[in-house]
């Protein structure tokens, strides 16, 4: 992961670890009291996150980080994820740090596209 104090680089390192399917690096980046929220689940703890939310990232072709905005111990990252099947989606995540560890991620889902067209997502 990144050098201490550089939160934008820590976020970039997380995205690289996801793409490499490097669960150990992601686990190491998360604080012990890590919490994760999406519209599908709120305040999921670290063990539950890895049991229910972690999946093999072989389906991801690439991440395109559009922006990272850091303000002290908090950051927003907006990215486009492109799957190997050509589908893509854009999300924004709110990331909270405790020192150099990620203590919280709140995910805000964006639209999905394939071949330039909106793809309606099943819940």
From TrEMBL:
InterPro entries according to UniProt: NTF2-like_dom_sf (IPR032710), SnoaL-like (IPR037401)
Pfam families: SnoaL_2
Residues in SnoaL-like domain copies: 11-104
Protein name: Nuclear transport factor 2 family protein
